[in-house]
Amino acid sequence: MRDMNLKLPPGRYYGETVRNHEMAGFGLTETIYSPHCKLPRHSHERPYFSLVVRGAYTENYGKKSRMCQPSMLIYHPADEDHSQHFYQAEGHLFRIEICPQRLEQLDGYVLVQNRSVDFQGDILCRLALRLYCEFSELDEVSPIVIEGLALEMIGEVLRASSGPMRPQPPRWLKQARELIRSQSFERLTLHQIAQAVGIHPIYLAREFRRHYRSTVGEYIRQLRVEAAC
């Protein structure tokens, strides 16, 4: 019988926590694990990156496994089941947890299609190492530096996704479409709709066509025809 999966709350990890800070919409945690440490199968509420600073371990996730080594970066989606078994050397990990407010700002993009993925020796690993160095010596400018590096990491993960990134309509565009639907028989102008959602009319027109495959005018005409039918 499979062990019950324990879901850890935000900012909580097995092992000895050395430092833990939340800034700029990211939770940063540095953790140490004793040699031969075995972590039970568990998951986390929020997605996060894990940078292997020192040590090595085997990780089982889903029905797969991988060997994690120093300077390797792993992306874990929220609610992913995984367990770890550290080897004879002490393990040292640095986590970058993505807080809900940051996820909302992604406007519907799904990081690597909600699956775990690892990176070695590329720009993502270098960004993570720079972020860890900044975290190790915090000063008054660190929050904005950390924010920039973390956002750049998210951008690189989106770009590296093997599947289509399929952006969803941003919230303001959904609000604009609902406004049009509710007032389709009124004399709406593009400027009025754009003003209602706080967007420039040109940007509204372009994004509406890109996401809904029609102009605002064509969409209004379609709604009126459907109502008449």
Give me the secondary-structure topology.
Layout: E1 6-8, E2 16-23, E3 26-33, E4 38-44, E5 48-54, E6 57-61, E7 64-68, E8 72-76, E9 82-86, E10 91-98, H1 100-104, E11 117-120, H2 123-136, H3 142-160, H4 171-182, H5 190-197, H6 201-212, H7 216-228
Parallel strand pairs: 1-4
Antiparallel strand pairs: 2-3, 3-10, 4-9, 5-8, 5-10, 6-7, 6-9, 8-11
Textual characterization of the structure:
With 229 residues, this protein is an alpha+beta fold. The protein has two domains: 6-160, Jelly Rolls; 171-228. The protein is 36% helix and 28% strand. It contains seven helices and eleven strands. The chain has helices spanning 100-104, 123-136, 142-160, 171-182, 190-197, 201-212, 216-228; strands at 6-8, 16-23, 26-33, 38-44, 48-54, 57-61, 64-68, 72-76, 82-86, 91-98, 117-120. A hairpin with a 2-residue loop joins strand 6 (57-61) and strand 7 (64-68). 23% of the residues are buried.
Amino- and carboxy-terminal Cα gap: 57 Å
**Whole-number total of structural domains:** 2
The amount of beta strand, in percent, is 25-35%
In the CATH hierarchy, what is the superfamily of the largest domain? Answer: Jelly Rolls
Q: What is the CA-atom radius of gyration, in angstroms?
A: 22 Å
Q: Please give the share of residues in helix.
A: 25-40%
Strand order of the largest sheet: 2-3-10-5-8-11
Oligomer: single chain
